[in-house]
């Protein structure tokens, strides 16, 4: 996502080099949305896969979100999860990605005007036709997950989950575990906030989402970076970085949870992959819980108008 939109300028050559380095290191899951830069991200992935060595390209799995409606100026005007729209979005995505199938396909935000059964039913038809391999969900609540799973097998739920965004633990995580659905956790570094690299005085570009995000504002930012300082002490004692510790914490929550890391440069990717060597035992996990208890973050994870689109928060 950050290679095409939302976090200010990105470097195209470095983005492609980062995807190649990820594939070379054994990363196999590439997540995108057709609305990330309005097609820009899918075309970027197309180029990266086309220019990657064949062995790596064949192992790469694509996970695509759809449904967002945009304006010429880049605004978001709603979501369309109706069956005709699902098939139309998929046709364009396949063309942009240059592939004959999408591995996991999911509606980015629940369409309040279309029952989830209809959206999932349309993706199931794409599975039947061979255009999609698996059905995913994004940012939906336990009831919606059950309704979707009653229509067709659901592979995974993509949802924000990190040390400072633990809303899924109460109801959503037990539900997906009961139903045998995996989780792709996004925002494991809370968009860089708990990466250890974000500073109080960082200047953000006008089009950077973080400039509008409640957690990055004034007193909230100060409070949240104090949490990062507490985490840094634990990380340093483990010989790890803050980002590695935050990713390792998500990895430690279960093998059914796959952290989606938003690295957009090779140096960040190398750091993130180092999390695989950070093993947190019960004592480490308890120390992390004390430093950053559930609910410790100040500010919502999205601006108020965007929180309203999250079925997962209802
Ligand atoms: N389903 C959904 O609703 C949804 C929503 C959002 C995202 N997603 C998916 O989840 C993916 C990850 O999301 P995200 O980028 O917001 O999450 P993230 O991994 O929490 O944040 C990534 C940002 O953290 C900073 N960072 C600092 N150190 C890093 C390191 N060692 N490794 C990686 N990043 C580091 C980078 O910002 P700087 O480069 O500015 O330092 C980077 O852009 C997205 O690409 C997208 O595919 C899904």
Describe this structure in a few short sentences.
This protein has 12 helices and 9 strands. It is of the alpha/beta class and 314 residues long.
CATH H-tier superfamily: NADP-dependent oxidoreductase domain
Structural class: alpha/beta
Query: Shape, please?
Result: globular
Oligomer: single chain
CATH class: Alpha Beta
Task: Find the CATH topology.
Answer: TIM Barrel
- Record field, number of beta strands: 9
Description:
This protein has 314 residues and is α/β, with parallel strands linked by helices. The chain has one domain: NADP-dependent oxidoreductase domain (TIM Barrel, Alpha-Beta Barrel). The chain has helices at residues 12-24, 40-50, 54-59, 83-97, 116-128, 142-149, 172-179, 218-238, 242-251, 266-273, 282-291, 304-307, and strands at residues 29-33, 61-66, 68-70, 76-79, 102-107, 132-138, 154-160, 182-186, 257-259. The strands form two sheets. The protein has a seven-stranded parallel β-sheet with strand order 1-2-5-6-7-8-9. β5, α5 and β6 (132-138) form a beta-alpha-beta unit. The protein is globular, with a radius of gyration of 19 Å. The model has no long low-confidence stretch (mean pLDDT 97). Bound molecules: NADP nicotinamide-adenine-dinucleotide phosphate (NAP). Residues 1-2, 7, 31-32, 65, 108, 138-139, 158, 186-192, 195, 197, 243, 260-264, 268, 271-272 line the site of NADP nicotinamide-adenine-dinucleotide phosphate. NADP nicotinamide-adenine-dinucleotide phosphate (NAP) binds next to β1 and α10.
């Amino acid at each position: 996502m950050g290679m095409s939109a939302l976090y200010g300028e990105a470097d195209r050559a470095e983005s492609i080099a980062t995807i190649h380095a990820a594939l070379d290191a054994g990363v196999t899951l590439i997540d995108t949305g057709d609305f990330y830069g309005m097609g820009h991200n899918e075309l970027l992935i197309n180029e990266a896969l086309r220019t990657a060595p064949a062995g790596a390209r064949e192992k790469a799995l694509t996970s695509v979100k759809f449904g967002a409606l945009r304006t010429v100026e880049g605004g978001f005007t709603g979501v369309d999860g109706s069956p005709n729209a699902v098939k139309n979005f998929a046709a364009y995505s396949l063309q942009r990605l240059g592939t004959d199938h999408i591995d996991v396909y999911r509606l980015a935000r629940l369409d309040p005007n279309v029952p989830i059964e209809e959206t999932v039913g349309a993706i199931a038809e794409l599975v039947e036709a061979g255009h999609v391999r698996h059905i995913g969900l994004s940012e939906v609540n336990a009831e919606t997950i059950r309704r979707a799973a009653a229509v067709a097998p659901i592979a995974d739920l993509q949802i924000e989950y990190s040390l400072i965004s633990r809303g899924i633990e109460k109801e959503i995580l037990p539900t997906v575990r009961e139903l045998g659905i995996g989780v792709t956790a996004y925002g494991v570094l809370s968009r860089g906030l708990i990466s250890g690299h974000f500073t109080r005085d960082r200047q953000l570009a006008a089009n950077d989402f973080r400039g509008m995000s409640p957690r990055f504002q004034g007193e909230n930012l100060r409070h949240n970076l104090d949490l990062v300082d507490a985490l840094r002490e634990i990380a340093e004692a483990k010989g790890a970085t803050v980002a590695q510790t935050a990713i390792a914490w998500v990895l430690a929550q279960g093998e059914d949870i796959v952290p989606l890391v938003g690295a957009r440069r090779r140096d960040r990717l190398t750091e993130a992959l180092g999390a695989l060597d950070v093993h947190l035992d019960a004592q480490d996990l308890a120390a992390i819980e004390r430093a950053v208890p559930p609910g410790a973050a100040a500010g919502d994870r999205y601006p108020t108008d965007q929180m309203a689109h999250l079925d997962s928060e209802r």
